[in-house]
Design goal:
single chain; 181 residues; alpha/beta; five-stranded mixed sheet; 23% helix; Thioredoxin_CS
Length: 181
């Protein structure tokens, strides 16, 4: 899922306000290729089609450029767990594991997905995050007594340590996670 997070307009690439925004390959934008920003990962200046037609000697060659965000590669996708992968990914994990039990038809589950994604990114390397679709893996949900979704369970050393039921604020999940890191 991709969405527009913010629009940034810079009228001239040569008039960047600070050195941290300066393009990597020169102080001005080339009319033929895109230029990446050193200070912001995932951002680059890319010429538009109309600016590519102008000659490089033209003083207007740089005006048709646009800032492009390539953030799709920097997002963290929370992986799904199935009956086949449950033992190896969750129970035998050497680090704490947060598991969200959800279903595609569940509205509150869709509300908490961005929170889980954000926590996965925030605690990367310290905590593993997974999702279990209760429609596809009902035996796991039954084994842990899941009666309401979304339910978030934290496991450590293969044991259930804490459970949070419902679409709760991020702070509630953070408090629960911090107890087991």
């Amino acid at each position: 899922m991709a969405g527009l997070m913010e629009t940034l307009t810079i009228p001239r690439a040569c008039a960047l306000p600070s050195a941290s925004l300066a393009p990597v390959s020169g102080s001005c934008v080339s009319h033929r290729s895109s230029v990446r920003f050193s200070g912001f990962r995932g951002l680059k200046i890319e010429p538009t089609r109309s600016s590519q037609k102008l000659s490089s000697s033209s003083k207007f060659a740089r005006r048709g450029s646009r800032i492009v965000c390539e953030a799709q590669d920097t997002t963290v996708e929370v992986a799904g767990v199935t009956d086949a992968t449950w033992q190896s990914l969750v129970l035998e994990s050497g680090s704490p594991v947060l598991v969200e039990f959800w279903a595609p038809w569940c509205g509150p589950c869709r509300m908490i997905h961005p929170v889980i994604d954000k926590l996965a990114k925030q605690y990367a390397g310290k905590l593993k995050c997974y999702k279990v679709n209760t429609d596809e893996s009902p035996s796991i949900a039954t084994q842990y007594g899941i009666r309401s979704i979304p339910t978030v369970i934290i496991f450590k050393n293969g044991e259930k340590k804490d459970a949070v039921i419902g679409a709760v604020p991020e702070s509630t999940l953070t408090t629960s996670i911090e107890k087991f890191l």
